[in-house]
Automatic annotation (TrEMBL):
<keyword id="KW-0325">Glycoprotein</keyword>
<keyword id="KW-1133">Transmembrane helix</keyword>
<dbReference type="InterPro" id="IPR032455">
    <property type="entry name" value="Cadherin_C"/>
</dbReference>
<keyword id="KW-0472">Membrane</keyword>
<keyword id="KW-1003">Cell membrane</keyword>
<protein>
    <recommendedName>
        <fullName>Cadherin domain-containing protein</fullName>
    </recommendedName>
</protein>
<keyword id="KW-0732">Signal</keyword>
<dbReference type="GO" id="GO:0005886">
    <property type="term" value="C:plasma membrane"/>
</dbReference>
<dbReference type="GO" id="GO:0009653">
    <property type="term" value="P:anatomical structure morphogenesis"/>
</dbReference>
<keyword id="KW-0677">Repeat</keyword>
<feature type="domain" description="Cadherin">
    <location>
        <begin position="35"/>
        <end position="91"/>
    </location>
</feature>
<dbReference type="GO" id="GO:0005509">
    <property type="term" value="F:calcium ion binding"/>
</dbReference>
<keyword id="KW-0106">Calcium</keyword>
<feature type="domain" description="Cadherin">
    <location>
        <begin position="535"/>
        <end position="631"/>
    </location>
</feature>
<dbReference type="Pfam" id="PF00028">
    <property type="entry name" value="Cadherin"/>
</dbReference>
<dbReference type="Pfam" id="PF16492">
    <property type="entry name" value="Cadherin_C_2"/>
</dbReference>
<keyword id="KW-0812">Transmembrane</keyword>
Length: 763
């Protein structure tokens, strides 16, 4: 049933009414009413019984709080409960027994316990009716203390001998519509003379007792006396009228008149009771008195804490001062016993602020950070000012909701990875890791490579990364000799909205493997030229006569080269520096030493396993070319095939014919110019880069001087047999007056050109 339009009366927008979490709060009572959160109407939730709720109070009201949030509003609603005629008048007993002496005078009055109707106003007891009889009439009395009650009046004298019993019916009726009534049977017994009725010592008994009075304690003792003797003077006590809620609390001793407690008292439920006590003698004459019991309050109720509103989880980015919860604290006691102090235990992040009428707001005092503390247990304590004070507490649990406010953080500021060259594709290079303290998807980290280029090639051609684990793999095989290191950037991005990211630099270093053999730079490798170096006969022990130069494309110890003589014509004559490659004489050169020396040098690196290569060094021990009867290819070739021999013979023949023709042409031109000039058409000159290096000139040390470097002219087309012509760089070697002679040496298949100097320069 609709009883009020709350939203309309308060002027609240109906569109936002439901968002403000409207509700009503009762102080521990039944929820008689409820609020419709859609339209703001106040409706009845369960049946209301005015008599149960308010008893005999003339005005019955139901008060409760109407509560709204955002912003916080509290309104006190008072609902007046109007009475309907739903109760019949009722007498305390269904039958009343009266003993009236036959000597009673005409006009004597005998009171009857009033009928009680829990309804109020017009619906309460309005009057009485007495059944028709010849001896008694009805008189209705009204008292401020007792209300309306009935008295029967003796109209005619009684005669016990004629009729010793009379039966009457008394009816009480209310003013409701329809009218309701209640009856009681009055049984009258006519007795001999009883002159006096009981008289109470005081018309009203007032007493005050604390609400914590123990059960069976005496509240008050009523006393009445009767001047008659014998049975007519014996007085008994009983309750003639008492409230419904008092019936379970008080009891009376019918003989002594002691009123005792048989149930607990509660000041908060009923602060006072009004009870009427009847004293009756043995002849049936009775008198009434009123007993007023006031209940004094004691501090027997601890404060009651109610959480009316609670927001959880709390987002960690909420502003300081945001309302988190609304707490209502109530103490049913009165005065100082009901005054309350409310506080929370030490907590820097929250504070409690007073609000409306025993309401407190729990608000944030500092910024929240879920990563530092994800939940809070807030203990709210309420203490009254009674003596001794009573305390109660309640703990609420608050969870902090996550906001994507933390980017992923890498475990290291930068990463260095090392991978050996010649690796297999998909080899793991390294693993990067980033942590995001946020929760669930806000803390899920995904990895990727930043687009960039390495030597003009996309980085994705070199590396790939597992987006979930952060493991970096090689896409291809690396070569240390091509590039030794490169740098990439890795991005760690969370899955929040919006996503946050951070990056880190990963430096990848290619480690060298011994995959390159030493390379001989000097002497020139076989197949390109045949190099012969002259060593003066006066060379002393320890003199440098030549040097082997080699390099290794590897690095580190893989490029540390060592030299040793693998094979030599005279093993004891020459030695080579282990790391310098310098060829030195171990002793002085003697006349008995072979003029032609061939050394096979082994060059080895320091890798594991080590790689090596060899080269041949040809040395000619002589001070002058004229001392050499012939030049012979000193290359050791142990396994030449017959085909190679035939080719050598053919080439020598062709070369001889060709050289003879050249010599004739040169001689003719020489004669004409009177200054000889050698011209060899078709000869191929060896580039000077292939010549041995010029060592420092040290006189007397036997070191080969630069003036002993000669050009060698070769014929083309032969790899194993060459025709050589030696010409000095010194212009004075061939004087202007010299003559040219040609000698043949069939044994070695070569020609020697000699020049004789004449004394006449004009010829």
């Amino acid at each position: 049933s609709l009883v009020g339009k709350t939203a309309h009366d308060l002027g609240v927008n109906r569109d936002t009414f439901s968002l403000r979490n409207p509700r009503i709060e009762f102080d521990g009572r039944s929820r008689y009413c409820e609020i419709n959160v859609q339209n703001g109407e106040l409706v009845i939730n369960e049946r209301i019984d005015r008599e149960e709720l308010c008893g005999l109070k003339p005005l019955c009201t139901l008060a409760f709080d109407f509560f709204m949030e955002n912003p916080l509003e509290l309104h006190r609603i008072t609902l007046e409960i109007e009475d309907i005629n739903d109760n019949n008048p009722a007498f305390p007993h269904s039958e009343v027994k009266l003993d009236i002496p036959e000597s009673a005078d005409k006009g004597s009055r005998f009171s009857i316990d009033e009928a009680v109707d829990p309804d109020s106003g017009i619906n309460a007891v309005q009057g009485y009716r007495l059944s028709t009889n010849p001896h008694f009439s009805l008189a209705v009395q009204t008292s401020a203390e007792t209300g309306k009650y009935a008295e029967i009046v003796l109209e005619h004298e009684l005669d016990r001998e004629k009729q010793d019993k009379h039966s009457l019916i008394l009816t009480a009726y209310d003013g409701g519509n329809p009218q309701k009534s209640g009856t009681v049977v009055i049984q009258i017994r006519v007795l001999d003379i009883n002159d006096n009725k009981p008289v109470f010592s005081q018309p009203v008994y007032k007493v005050s007792v604390p609400e914590n009075l123990p059960v069976d304690s005496v509240v008050v003792t009523v006393s009445a006396s009767d001047a008659d003797e014998g049975a007519n003077g014996d007085v008994t006590y009983e309750f003639s009228h008492m409230p419904v809620n008092a019936k379970s609390i008080f009891s009376i001793n019918p003989t002594s008149g002691e009123i005792t407690i048989k149930g607990p008292l509660d000041f908060e439920d009923s602060p006072s009771f009004e009870i009427r006590v009847k004293a009756k003698d043995g002849a049936g004459l009775a008198a009434t008195s009123k007993v007023v019991v006031d209940i004094s309050d004691v501090n027997d109720n601890a404060p009651f804490i109610m959480i009316k509103s609670l927001k959880t989880p709390l987002m960690e980015d909420m502003t300081v001062g945001t309302e988190v919860a609304v707490i209502y604290v109530q103490d049913k006691d009165t005065e100082s016993n009901g005054k309350i102090k409310c506080f929370i235990q030490q907590n820097d992040h929250f504070k409690l602020t007073p609000s409306i009428k025993n309401h407190f707001a729990l608000v944030t005092a500092e910024a929240l950070d879920r990563e530092r503390e994800s939940e809070y247990n807030i203990t709210i304590t309420a203490t009254d000012e009674g003596s001794p004070p009573l305390t109660s507490s309640k703990t609420i649990r608050l969870f902090v909701g996550d906001v994507n406010d933390n980017p992923p953080a890498f475990e290291q500021q930068s990463y260095s990875a090392y991978i050996s060259e010649n690796n297999k594709p998909d080899t793991s290079v390294c693993s990067v890791g980033a942590n995001d303290p946020d929760w669930r998807q806000n803390g899920t980290v995904l990895y990727s490579l930043v687009s960039s280029e390495v030597n003009g090639v996309p980085v994705s051609s070199f590396l790939s990364i597992n987006g979930d684990t952060g493991v970096i793999h090689a896409v291809r095989s690396f070569d240390y000799e091509q590039f030794r290191n490169f740098t990439v950037k890795v991005v760690a991005r969370d899955n929040g909205s919006p996503p946050l990211s951070s990056n880190v630099t990963v430096k990848v270093f290619i480690t060298d493997e011994n995959d390159n053999s030493p390379q001989i730079l000097y002497p020139v490798p076989d197949g390109k030229s045949l190099m012969t170096e002259m060593v003066p006969k006066a060379t002393l022990s320890g003199s440098v006569v030549s040097k082997v130069i080699a390099v290794d494309a590897d690095s580190g110890q893989n490029a540390w080269l060592s030299y040793q003589i693998f094979k030599s014509t005279d093993p004891g004559l020459f030695s080579i520096g282990l790391h310098s490659g310098e060829i030195k004489t171990q002793r002085d050169i003697s006349e008995s030493d072979n003029m032609k020396q061939n050394l096979v040098i082994s060059v080895k690196d320091n890798g594991q396993p080590s790689l090596s290569t060899t080269c041949s060094v040809n040395l000619l021990i002589s001070d002058n070319l004229s001392e050499v009867p012939e030049l012979k290819d000193m290359t050791y070739e142990d396994n030449n095939s017959k085909l190679t021999s035939y080719l050598i013979i053919a080439l020598v023949c062709v070369s001889t014919f060709f050289m003879t023709f050249i010599i004739l042409i040169v001689a003719v031109k020489f004669c004409h110019r009177r200054k000889p000039r050698l011209l060899f058409d078709g000869a191929v000159a060896v580039p000077s880069a292939y010549l041995p290096p010029n060592y420092a000139e040290v006189d007397g040390a036997g070191t080969l001087r630069s003036s002993y470097n000669y050009d060698a002219y070769l014929t083309t087309g032969s790899r194993t047999s060459d025709f050589k012509f030696v010409s000095s760089y010194n212009e004075n070697t061939l004087p202007a007056g010299g003559t040219l002679k040609k000698e043949h040496n069939i044994q070695f298949g070569s020609s020697m050109i000699t020049l004789d100097v004449t004394g006449n320069e004009d010829e």
